[in-house]
Amino acid sequence: MHGAGGSIGSHLAKRLKNDGFWIKGVDPKRPEFGKTATDDFVVGDVRDPNICKCVLDPPFHGVYHLPADMGRRSINWIENQVLKYGHVEKTA
To answer: Which of 14, 21, 23, 78 has a CA-to-CA distance to 41 between 20 and 30 Å?
Structure first.
């Protein structure tokens, strides 16, 4: 789960964990809203292809991509999302 350190990611991780799923989370920062519910948490940025390889090995059944670039609705935000999705797609 990309964005596992944010509000939505933290809540989704709790829900998935309660439903019996094993969860690997990744985010550039540690969770702000308490202890993470993920089984494994990696501090990293998915714009880095090496981080994608690290967090997507072994292969998973699904990937949740919950990016948050607060207040950055600009061309840079779009470029960041393209990089994030592109690295995840190539690695998966």
So the answer is: 78
